[in-house]
């Protein structure tokens, strides 16, 4: 867990996972509860939580992007993946593989 708090990419990966989970809860749990069981408050509260994590996703993405010097196209791709269900998990996996490759090559 120390990695997630010590680097900007680590914080971004952590928020990406949490944001992805909150998005899936909103889409696959809260929305069906609203429309099939007439429970609109579930979407209200879940939406607030998801909105908070979405904003954190954007902030941590910008921070990691500027620190790592990612090109605009890559940063925009990661932003757009936040709108795709399971997209942020793909982003996390991609960053994990890059980090693992860099560590095995002897880079920091």
- CA-based gyration radius: 16 Å
Q: Which structural class is indicated by helix and strand composition?
A: mainly alpha
Write down the overall mean pLDDT: 93
Residues in β-strands, percent: under 5%
- Helix fraction? over 70%
Shape: elongated
**Tell me about the biggest sheet?**
none
Order of secondary-structure elements: HHHHH
Could you give the distance between the termini?
18 Å
| Low-pLDDT stretches | none
Q: Please report the total strand number as a whole number.
A: 0
Output the keywords.
108 residues; 5 helices; elongated
Give me the secondary-structure topology.
Layout: H1 2-6, H2 8-37, H3 40-68, H4 72-81, H5 87-104
Helix pairs in contact: 2-3, 2-5
Task: State the gist of this model.
This protein is mainly alpha-helical and 108 residues long. The chain has helices spanning 2-6, 8-37, 40-68, 72-81, 87-104. The chain is built from five helices and no strands.
Q: Can you describe what's shown?
A:
With 108 residues, the chain is an all-alpha fold. It has a domain of 73 residues. Helices cover 85% and strands 0% of the residues. The protein is built from five helices and no strands. The longest helix has 30 residues. The protein is elongated and about 55 Å long. The mean pLDDT is 93.
